[in-house]
Amino acid sequence: MKILPFDFDRVASNDVLITNVAGETAILDNREFEILCNEDYEWISETRLNELIAKHFITNDDNFDLSVELLSNKLRSRKSYLSGFTSLHMIVLTLRCNCMCSYCHASSKGGVDDKKYDMDELTARNTVSIIFKTPSPVVKIEFQGGEPTLNFDILKVIVLYAEELNQTAKKELSFVICTNLLYLTDEQLQFLYKHKIDISTSCDGTKELHDFCRKSLISESAYDSFIANLKKCRDVYGEKDGPSALLTVTRNNLYHLRDIIDQYRFLGFDNMFIRALNPYGYAIDNKNNLDYSVEEFVKAYTDALSYIIELNLKGHFFVESYAAILLQRILTPFPTGFVDLQSPSGAGILGSIYYYDGEVYPADEGRMLAAKGDKKFLMGNVNKDSFEKIFDGKLIHKLVKSSCVECMPGCSYCAYKNFCGADPIRYYVESNDILGKRYSSGFCKKNKSIIKELLKYISIGDPNTMKVFWSWINRKPLEGCDDNK
Q1: b vs e for 182-197, b when ≥16 Cβ sit within 10 Å of the residue's Cβ?
Q2: Quick one: which of 107, 309, 356, 357 has the fewest CB in 10 Å?
Q3: Which domain holds residue 248?
Q4: Is 476 domain-assigned?
Q5: What is the rounded distance in angstroms from the CA atom of residue 434 to the CA atom of residue 424?
Q6: Peptide bond into 344 cis (omega under 30)
Q7: 379-431 residue pLDDT tens
Q8: CA proximity to 321, closest of 274, 262, 263, 259
């Protein structure tokens, strides 16, 4: 018998988590862990021994080559997102916005009539031309702002031109618009529906909570406008294919997550993405009024997660989308496509963002820094640079070399590295260094704490809870989900 490489972490006084390069996990008691380390396998139960062999923590001498091959296949599956290169392309149609959110990460401009922050048609066409140079067979174009509906004519130009180019390119093309739903005409809605453009929106909870941070510039209540247009969208798209919603957690709603979950369900949502406040844009300017510690967020998040699991166990299908992404990384060998949880970082090589003036950044956070005057992560401009210059320049090479958790200080020996990822732009904001400092990184602390919480549920192994988790991964209610994966 041979022992294969693994990482470990003590998760309780008598429990040790072990993980390997393929993302396989096992939780051993102290005695079993000592047996594994000393390779005294005659003292371990047959059931546990078979588990460790099946998960490639140990191997029979005769099967060493096969075990390495199986590990390689699983690792190749985890890294398969690298073969396609950039598939997510976010386009900032305008910085103008009809809503002033106190935590706006994008530093939107409140002058809704000032079009100097709009993308023009030439830049739009050049952006689409650059996008279709990607070798990825999949192209997803996401419209952002500001409020993208304020430059809807350019949105139409981009959609129609992309569809025209795709008649030859034959890529798997899709669109999504991120909108606050404050204003949406019937004509705009019909265009979105006709061209199968998914709608993503934001809801901060109850009317009081929503209106507190999200100040409408065109109506008395951002919440009332949101509700009216949410109904319009569902009337056209149908209940199942209507908008999805994201929750930004501030100090104002941090301790109301259970109420907000109930509100989401009341509004007809079957999922929510609980997003922590990030250190960009107006969230920095208003930090004293909005911010909280990582520990406070994790405590509130884990309570919300517990409540959502309870709801599912009672028969109410509802997904917390961030947990679902992490669960897919923990329970399957397949990549998630989520830019923030990749190694090397998905910034630039999985997703990129095109600013209203044609500047290209490797991630949304890069353009957020640029809005505050820091263009450290500028890759190029669609109006003067080629695809090769933008996507094969020094910056993107540096990001890739500096964001492989397998060899990053503080990450290389971490038991959770296969489930997490690297965020060099966030590290730069936190420590002025794209390698970052794991001991003080809020990104690291948050992700590790949430992963540990999910692993706790998995180690307990309650069959009904595991069915809930598989239903989230498959995005299907329990009765339509096979938990024997």
Answers
A1: bbbeeebbebbeebeb
A2: 357
A3: 83-292
A4: no
A5: 4
A6: yes
A7: 999 999 999 999 999 999 999 999 999 999 999 999 999 999 999 999 999 99
A8: 274
235 shares its domain with 128: yes
The dihedral built from the CA positions of residue 253, 255, 259 and 260, taken in this order, carries a sign that is positive
- What's the token pair of residue 287? 């930090």
Q: How many Cα atoms occupy the beta-carbon half-sphere of 200 within 13 Å? A: 14
Over the range 289-307, which residues count as b (16 or more CB within 10 Å of their CB) and which as e? ebbbebeebbebbbebbeb
> Residues 150, 94: contact at Cβ < 8 Å?
yes
Render pLDDT for 283-320 as a digit per residue (tens, 0 to 9).
Answer: 999 999 999 999 999 999 999 999 999 999 999 999 99
Provide the domain count of the chain.
Answer: 2
What amino acid occupies position 13?
S
444 and 427 Cβ atoms separated by less than 8 Å = no
Q: What are phi and psi of 395, to 5 degrees?
A: -60, -50
Phi first, then psi: give them for residue 36, nearest 5 degrees: -60, -50
Domain assignment of residue 261, yes or no: yes
Residues 150 and 233 in one domain: yes
Between the alpha carbon of residue 450 and those of residues 57, 297, 300, 454, the distances in Å are 24, 10, 11, 6
Token look-up 């139960």 returns 45
Give dist(CA 59, CA 480) in Å, integer: 36
Q: Where are the beta strands (DSSP E) in 315-400?
A: 319-320, 351-354, 359-361, 380-381
Tell me if 269 sits within 8 A of 245, measured CB to CB: yes
> Radius of gyration of the chain from Cα atoms?
23
Report the amino acid identity of residue 245. Answer: A
Q: What is the pTM of this model?
A: 0.94
Q: How far apart are CA 209 and CA 103, in angstroms?
A: 13
Residue 111 confidence (pLDDT) above 70: no
